[in-house]
Amino acid sequence: MKLQLLLHAALDQAEVQLQNVAQALQKGEAKGSDPYVGILSPALFDVEDCNIYGYVAATRVKVLAIVRDGACRQRRDEEAILRSMLRQLNLLYVDAASNPFYDGLGKARDELKHRLETICEDSELSLSTDCSEAGSESPVSLDTTEALLLFDWDDTLLPTSWIHEQGWLNEEGDLVSPADEIILNRQQQVLLQELEVKVEQTLLTAMGYGRVVIVTNAMEGWVETSCAAFLPGLRPLLDELDIVSARAFATPSGRTRTSISSRFEEGVGIDGPAEWKRRAFAEIMEAAFAEGGSRPNVLSIGDSVYEQDAIKAATKCMPNCSSKSLKLLESPDIQQLIEEHDLLFHHLDTAVAHEDQLELEVAPEMARELGAFVPA
């Protein structure tokens, strides 16, 4: 299971590691780029079934969730509870990113402790919910902890159009120089760092709702290369996600086609980016929901109509699927992309929980102080 930071299967090992982290933080010996300022007491979020551990860094709250031995009889129930808690705890990210309350462990603990009551009340699954009850839902109910969220990369997470305007991409879309040789001025660094924080916030929040997959029409390896060049702080988080190059679906020979994707074989060409996305979405979704159970819940986020068309086609033959798409601005500048991720952070929960089909896009006239999704 991929949670931020980590879910340990061996709880005794987790306890040892947490103690080591706590000691290192308290002694100022922690290594890494984040200037740590405190450790959240395990007792702070201690509940009947689970312990929540975390520590505060200069720009974010990092969370480690652990379920006690025997607390859950099924792994699926365990993941549902953890994701529900993680989603609520990630709300603390906003506080950590914007509120200067870091003057020591006591102040940080006081600031976070008042959120516990809200977390318990708002959590989809109560933190003390018995796991046998969590697994007793109707098989057709919409589970907002097991959603599939499909993100585009270029101009959705990476400011590709802006990068091109800065002269770092050629007309073919390739870097004009190796990633480690790109030199950024101060203004560019500030903008990219601000976007990096916003994108991380979006992805962490999305991870709390289920499985997150980045699906790009770019060549394999582009996501990792461009991330290292312009959003290097996201690399550890990307390692937690699945990254799919839809170009792999351009050539059908040698690939085993499944029942869902095979419906694209007749009458539709496969040598274009629209069809690559359709095939990629279809196979990812069929694999994700092959075992049945909860009602399929899918959300696509991208800047082009390719994602909208792909999710429509991929869910056409999936009965009772709740499919949603959020279309962002095409060719945004970096400031617009930053604003869009603010918008995403505040509306992801509504989109994931929406029961019916949904197709929205960012209003082209979106102002800096007030963004809006409108019907597509």
Automatic annotation (TrEMBL):
<protein>
    <submittedName>
        <fullName>Uncharacterized protein</fullName>
    </submittedName>
</protein>
<dbReference type="GO" id="GO:0006888">
    <property type="term" value="P:endoplasmic reticulum to Golgi vesicle-mediated transport"/>
</dbReference>
<dbReference type="Pfam" id="PF04628">
    <property type="entry name" value="Sedlin_N"/>
</dbReference>
<dbReference type="InterPro" id="IPR036412">
    <property type="entry name" value="HAD-like_sf"/>
</dbReference>
<dbReference type="InterPro" id="IPR011012">
    <property type="entry name" value="Longin-like_dom_sf"/>
</dbReference>
<dbReference type="GO" id="GO:0005737">
    <property type="term" value="C:cytoplasm"/>
</dbReference>
<dbReference type="InterPro" id="IPR006722">
    <property type="entry name" value="Sedlin"/>
</dbReference>
